[in-house]
């Protein structure tokens, strides 16, 4: 008989939709209900052929299946013998693994960084400088009458964001749903999200900073002495400024269109300042559209444990923070690290080519459930159980609400949770260090 | 007469096909089909006399990559091409992190070139891994 597991939390994007129903028959997932196509793909991927099910060590250029003990021992040896190891990834695994990972970084005197540094790292830097007017997604659902997506296309990256939290949902004070809300989308392309908007603002690439400052000016003075800013006509800017000032509860969601474009963290500085200005007239909040389901979790755990959210260096025995210096891409571009442990991430696919090249030079340990370009370059591979599908754990939604991930099916035999694999490496590192001292 | 080359601004990011392909399909053909593509404005395709599915070479000062031209459904965005994030896009984006850790994945200036050899195709993920293995000083050399 098929079993239906209800209230499952989706481990794909920062929405962490918690209303999924997963149908399990004979220990296999046969159906995923309520999830978007991204979430469904993630659940079904657990059973795909390409799954890494055994530990491997590269010997004479070929992957050789070994015992878990041998793989852990080899990983610990690589890390102990390195002068400046890099521990990177972490955003697609549970908070309990983050905790052990940071303990390992401290033990090794390593650099530890998560995918935020190539995602919303600039947002975090800007929030540290300006501060954040934020809220939970529940408040947006119940109260917001003006929704703005800036440089973000949730129809591709967070497909259920509009229907669950912002536009097409009924809230306590918004019981008519979308009829009571206005949607503004600012993007360089007319995306599927933009096609749903009441107002689409097509900005030139790299023109976001200028447009935000023009909006701030228009909000303060009610006027604008330019006919066009960043490709956007004056009348539209004045209209958007008026809508922002006159709404009851506005929410600005922004994506990588701001953090990755010219200006980077300065774009977010400007957006945070815009929202600060708007709070003189009405209630306005801002939220980054976090990509990986638990990227927020790593930033939170790291802040508890080290005082800093990402890009942390333990080489002096105490944590230091400096994105641009201790961020993974920079450590690789400078060819500084001499070993790397990658957990639940694929930097060979997602880092600039020049940065990935250094990963081909150094000993590399990978903990990943699937064969990826990074796993193909590894010297040691450890097979994990997938958090949120095969093992429980804690994850933080994009609005910093922690949710418990559920175990839906058993992992393949021999696949252990990330937290256990990292703990085994940590224990072995401590043994090796004790022996050598 | 159609142009051979077109100056463009390159942006990269998530597409729904990319998000599905990365879940256990990275070493399969699903991945280059989802990410080894260049979404172009129809008017830009016309300038280069391209039809959907033609191979193009996208070049920046950081590298070059063969991609498949695809007609964008998010037009008009003349002069802007979109490449889904992945190892194909990352061959040509600007690695400079502006001292904050974030490379310029969006807004990179480049050139799209029409390829005469219609048999050219984007590299597979395996071929890209082999390229990375040939890096100077690589442990595989």
Considering the chains and any ligands shown, give keywords for the structure:
heterodimer; A: 437 residues; alpha/beta; Rossmann fold; 2 domains; 9-stranded mixed β-sheet; 5-stranded parallel β-sheet; 21 strands; globular; B: 141 residues; Barwin-like endoglucanases; 6 strands
Structure, briefly:
Helices cover 38% and strands 21% of the residues of chain A.
Tally of helical segments of chain A = 18
Quick one: biggest sheet of chain A?
Answer: 9 strands, mixed
How would you describe the shape of chain B?
Answer: globular
Identify the strand order in the major beta sheet of chain A. 5-4-19-18-17-6-7-15-16
Which percent range describes the beta-strand content of chain B?
Answer: 25-35%
Which strand order spans the largest sheet of chain B, edge to edge or round the barrel? 2-4-3-6-1-5
How would the global form of chain A be characterised?
A: globular
The CATH class of the largest domain in chain A: Alpha Beta
Q: How many runs of DSSP E, i.e. beta strands of chain A?
A: 21
Radius of gyration of chain A: 23 Å
| Average pLDDT rating of chain A | 97
End-to-end Cα distance of chain A, whole Å, is 57 Å
Q: How helical, in percent, are the residues of chain A?
A: 25-40%
**Main sheet characteristics of chain B:** 6 strands, mixed
């Amino acid at each position: 008989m098929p079993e239906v597991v209800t209230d499952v939390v989706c481990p794909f994007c920062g929405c962490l939709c918690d209303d999924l129903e997963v149908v399990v028959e004979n220990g296999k997932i046969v159906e995923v209900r309520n999830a978007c196509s991204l979430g469904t793909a993630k659940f079904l991927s657990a059973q795909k052929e390409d799954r890494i099910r055994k530990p491997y060590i590269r010997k004479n250029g070929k992957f050789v299946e070994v015992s878990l003990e041998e793989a852990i021992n080899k990983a610990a040896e690589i890390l102990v013998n390195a002068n400046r190891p890099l521990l990177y990834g972490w955003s697609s695994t549970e908070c309990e693994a983050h905790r052990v990972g940071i303990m390992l970084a401290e033990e090794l005197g390593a650099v530890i960084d998560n995918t935020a540094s190539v995602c919303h790292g600039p947002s975090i830097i800007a929030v540290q400088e300006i501060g954040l007017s934020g809220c939970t997604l529940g408040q947006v659902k119940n109260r917001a009458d003006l929704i703005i997506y800036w440089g973000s296309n949730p129809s591709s990256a967070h497909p259920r964001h509009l229907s669950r939290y912002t536009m097409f949902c009924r809230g306590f004070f918004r019981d008519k749903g979308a009829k009571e809300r206005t949607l503004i989308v600012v993007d360089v392309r007319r995306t599927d999200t933009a096609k749903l908007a009441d107002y689409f603002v097509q900005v030139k690439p790299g023109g976001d900073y200028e447009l935000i400052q023009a909006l701030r000016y228009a909000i303060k003075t009610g006027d604008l002495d330019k006919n066009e800013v960043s490709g956007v006509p004056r009348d539209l800017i004045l209209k958007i400024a008026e809508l922002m000032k006159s709404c009851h509860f506005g929410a600005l969601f922004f994506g990588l269109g701001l953090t990755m474009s010219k200006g980077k963290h300065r774009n977010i500085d400007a957006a945070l300042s815009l929202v600060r200005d708007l709070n003189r007239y009405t209630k306005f909040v801002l939220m980054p559209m976090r990509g990986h389901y638990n990227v927020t979790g790593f930033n939170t755990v790291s802040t508890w444990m080290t005082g800093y959210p990402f890009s942390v260096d333990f080489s002096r025995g105490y944590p230091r923070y400096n994105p641009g210096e201790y961020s993974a891409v920079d450590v690789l571009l400078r060819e500084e690290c001499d070993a790397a442990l990658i957990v639940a991430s694929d930097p060979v696919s997602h880092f600039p080519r020049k940065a990935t090249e250094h990963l081909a030079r150094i000993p590399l340990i990978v903990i990943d459930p699937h064969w990826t370009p990074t796993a193909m370059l590894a010297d040691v591979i450890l097979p994990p159980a997938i958090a949120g599908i095969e093992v429980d754990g804690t994850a933080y939604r994009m609005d910093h609400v922690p949710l418990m991930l559920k175990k839906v099916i058993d992992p393949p035999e021999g696949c252990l949770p990330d937290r256990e694999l990292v703990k085994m490496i940590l224990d072995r590192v401590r043994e090796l260090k004790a022996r050598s001292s | 007469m159609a142009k051979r080359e077109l100056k463009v601004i390159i942006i990269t990011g998530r597409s729904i096909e990319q998000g599905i392909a990365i879940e256990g399909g990275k070493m399969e053909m699903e991945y280059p089909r989802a990410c080894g593509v260049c979404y172009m404005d129809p008017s830009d395709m016309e300038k280069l006399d391209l039809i959907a599915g033609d191979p193009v070479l996208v070049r920046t000062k950081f590298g070059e990559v063969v991609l498949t031209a695809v007609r964008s459904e998010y037009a008009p965005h003349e002069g802007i091409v979109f490449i889904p994030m992945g190892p194909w896009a990352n061959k040509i984006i600007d690695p400079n992190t502006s001292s904050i850790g974030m490379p310029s994945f969006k807004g990179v200036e480049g050139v799209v070139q029409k390829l005469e050899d219609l048999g050219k195709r984007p590299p597979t993920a395996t071929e890209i891994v082999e390229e990375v293995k040939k890096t100077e000083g690589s442990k595989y050399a």
